[in-house]
Amino acid sequence: MRRIAPRHLSRIIATLSLPGADPSPEADPALTALTFAWRDVVGTLIATHSQPCSLDDGVLTLSCSEPAIASELCLRERDLCHALSQRGFRVAAIRIRSPRT
Fold first, then answer.
1. What's the CATH code, domain 27-97?
2. 10-66 pLDDT per residue, tens
3. What does the buried/exposed string (b/e) look like for 44-82 if buried means 16 or more CB atoms within 10 Å of the residue's CB?
4. Which residues is 63 bridged to in the sheet?
5. Higher pLDDT, 21 or 79
6. What is the pLDDT of residue 100?
7. Is residue 59 a contact partner of residue 28, using CB atoms and an 8 Å limit?
8. How large is the average pLDDT for residues 60-82?
9. DSSP-assigned letters across all residues of 41-77
10. How many Å apart are CA 39 and CA 46, to the nearest integer?
């Protein structure tokens, strides 16, 4: 029987608690940490309807389930980038993938 390689506890927790979390070894630890901090940064309502998808070269890509939430995030981009940088995340811009209506 083939033995499965151990995984980091943070990846296991992400798999159990976040829908769509990527448990693969290629998962970005900064994105995982940002995902856990997301609700504290944006609040419960917005966090319920949005989720960080990727963090590449300082650009945070978010998925939103509601157009109104996407608009709110666009309006708050500068404040969000500042709040995230205060928590140690290097985010210079936010890109939003909103649902098609």
1. 3.30.300.180
2. 555 544 444 444 445 466 888 999 999 999 999 999 999 999 999 999 999 999 999
3. eebbebbbbbebeeeebbbbbeeeebbebbeeeeeebbe
4. 51, 97
5. 79
6. 61
7. no
8. 94
9. HH-HHHHHTEEEEEEETTEEEEEESSHHHHHHHHHTH
10. 8
Residue 40 structure tokens: 């504290």
Whether residue 6 is predicted with pLDDT greater than 90 in this model: the reply is no
Phi/psi of residue 96, each to 5°? -120, 130
Which amino acid is it at 74? C
Q: Strand 59-64 to strand 93-97: parallel, antiparallel, or no bridges (unpaired)?
A: parallel
The number of beta carbons lying within 10 Å of the beta carbon of residue 14 is 21
**Amino acid symbol at 14:** A
Nearest to 91 by CA among 41, 47, 44: 41
- For the record, the structure tokens of 51 come out as 């989720």
Q: Are 65 and 98 in contact (CB under 8 A)?
A: no
